[in-house]
Amino acid sequence: MLKYILVIALVLFTGCSSKNDLINANQEDYTSTMNYDMISKDAVLEAAKKAFIFTNKDFVIDSYRNSLSVRKTNVNHFPLTPILVEDTWFFEVNEVDNKSLASVYVKRIKNLDSKEGIYLSKSEHEIFWKRVGFFLSLETKWESCMGYISNIFDLNGFCDNEGKKYFNTPSKEDRIADIFIFQRINSKDIVEINDDILENDNFSIKTKSNDILEKEDKINSSISKQNKEDIEDIKEIDSILDKIKKDTDENLNKQ
């Protein structure tokens, strides 16, 4: 009985402290950063996506040009009532002076009807950065979640203890190739794009020697043999259409 009372007291204490933590917290104090020399922004962004995908199938990823917003909702089962917990990871990367500057922070809400919550400690980010580094070939091994336990109730916020995480270790083939900035194909500027469009435009007007506008108007009023055959064909078609119409009218009158 005493054990359950202690658990309930801990939950209540955590809930009360959570409410105040986010109000008084400075987001920058809970944001960790990483600088990647000569590695492209796109490679870092892809590595971050893979880090989430290979960690847990319940991560919901919203991807943008320079950032990710990633949500995961868990139900923590306590003695009296289950508690719904939602973590949102905010990841951003920018390429400046041949470096990709990346940052991440995590906001946790325990009551989805409330906008209040807490920022998770920077220590929660460690395994995330390790797994990003794996896909960039900066880490030699795939880091295990078991080495990053937050407290007695669950694993690190990046992982979970609900058995939903992927146990398969990514292979070397899953690492990202051509990660460096100099390996990227340079984007074309607007002038080059415009030139390419004009060069390949199939609708461009070109002057030809047999252009109908340059020819002298020499309409022959006489009917050629081919024209006569065409007229006969038209008459035959009209005759067939007249017969069909006549048969149709007769059938309708019989009804």
List the helices and strands and how they pair.
Elements lengths: L1 H23 L7 E6 L3 H13 L6 E4 L3 E11 L4 E15 L2 E11 L8 E2 L6 H10 L54 H10 L25 H30 L1
Antiparallel strand pairs: 1-5, 2-3, 3-4, 4-5, 5-6
Helix pairs in contact: 2-3
Provide tags for this entry.
5 helices; alpha+beta; elongated; 255 residues; 34% helix; disordered N terminus
Radius of gyration: 35 Å
Level of helix content? 25-40%
Helix and strand pattern: HEHEEEEEHHH
Q: Name the assembly state.
A: single chain
Outline type: elongated
Counted by DSSP, the helix tally is: 5
Largest sheet: 6 strands, antiparallel
Mean pLDDT: 74
Report the portion of residues in β strands.
15-25%
User: Unreliable segments (pLDDT under 50, ≥5 consecutive)?
Assistant: 1-21, 203-209, 212-223
Distance between the termini: 92 Å
- Number of distinct beta strands: 6
The secondary-structure class comes to alpha+beta
Describe the structure.
This protein is an alpha+beta fold and 255 residues long. Helices cover 34% and strands 19% of the residues. The chain has 5 helices and 6 strands, in the order αβαβββββααα. The protein has helices at residues 2-24, 41-53, 126-135, 190-199, 225-254; strands at 32-37, 60-63, 67-77, 82-96, 99-109, 118-119. Strands 1, 2, 3, 4, 5 and 6 form a 6-stranded antiparallel sheet that branches. Strand 3 and strand 4 form a beta hairpin. Helix 2 (41-53) packs across helix 3 (126-135). The longest helix is centred in the last third of the chain and has 30 residues, at 225-254. The radius of gyration is 35 Å and the shape is elongated. Residues 1-21, 203-209 and 212-223 have low confidence and may be disordered.
